[in-house]
Structures are given as C-alpha cells and as structure tokens.
Design a protein that fits this description.
Helix content is about 30%, strand content about 20%.
Length: about 160
C-alpha cells in the first residue's frame, strides 16, 4: 500500500524547479527530498480488510479498497503535512495546487483512498465490485527503492549508491 507517492525523484525535482521558475535548483532539491524521505518516521505493522474492488487512475486500474485503522490515516496525514513543509522550505507557493498538478506526484484528488492496486481494468469504466471480505496484513512502512536515493552530499541525479 502506498502511503505517500512522490514519483521519480528527478521528475519531482524538475517539477519543483519549473514551479519555482528556476529559483529552486535541481542539484539542491534532490538532496533535500532524499534527506526528508530518509528521516520519515516508520509506521508499525497493521491489519486491514477489504470487501470491494474499485477503479483507480481514472478507471484504468483496479484496486482493493482497504479499511485501515485510524492511526494509518493519521500517519498519512502526517506525511502530507511533512510534504507541505518540505515544499514550503524549497520555496514553492500554492503548494496544494502544485501537489495536484505535479506529473511526478500524480495526484488526481486531494482525498487519499487506502488501496492495493491489483491490475488493469477490463474496461475503462469498470464499476465497484463487492467481494467476500479479506483480511490483509501490512508490515512496517518503508521507502520503496531506498537504494536509489542520492547519497548525502551527492548533487547528481538519483541512482544507486556509489
């Protein structure tokens, strides 16, 4: 389950540079984002459940909508607040507009729906499907592709540690 999607870091840095009209520079933005990501607190393992399959991504993907404990919603809200602070520190204005318009972030809605993507929809307008309830166990939160983050002091692009 994705708790906060930031996309490809080079693309996010380019979106930030474009939004600030070059006031923020990519070689400064990338290490800031990487540092922020590595300092995020870990959400402990939790249990969820699902009883419906929903369309995602404008109907192109289907996913299990997952009921999660309130602490997961609170953690996700904390991540979004942290993203706001990071973007403010990087000199962005109209941060909500940036978040909803950044191609790297890819958000289409300000509302987070806990889900697990399960595959391509058969048709573009697939309806919600009720399913037999299923319990889902999630491990501790982690950064996907952590090994691709720039090393501290590295002003180059994202890549494997050197």
């Amino acid at each position: 389950m994705t708790l906060l999607h930031v996309g490809i870091l080079d693309d996010l840095a380019n979106d930030i540079v474009a939004w600030t009209k070059g006031a923020a520079r990519s070689e400064e933005v990338l290490p800031e984002i990487a540092s922020w990501l590595t300092e995020l607190p870990v959400l402990a393992a939790f249990l969820g459940k699902s009883d419906k399959l929903i369309p995602l991504g404008g109907g192109r993907v289907m996913g299990l909508e997952v009921d999660v404990p309130q602490e997961v919603h609170d953690y996700q809200a904390l991540l979004l607040q942290g993203l706001h602070l990071l973007l403010d520190d990087l000199g962005l204005d109209n941060i909500d507009d940036f978040i909803l318009s950044s191609p790297a972030l890819g958000y289409r809605s300000p509302r987070w729906v806990p889900h697990i993507a399960v595959g391509k929809a058969r048709t573009r307008h697939e309806p919600v499907v009720e399913i037999a309830p299923v319990a889902i166990e999630f491990g501790d939160s982690r950064i996907r592709n952590r090994q691709a983050l720039p090393l501290p002091g590295d002003s180059g692009g994202v890549g494997p540690p050197r």
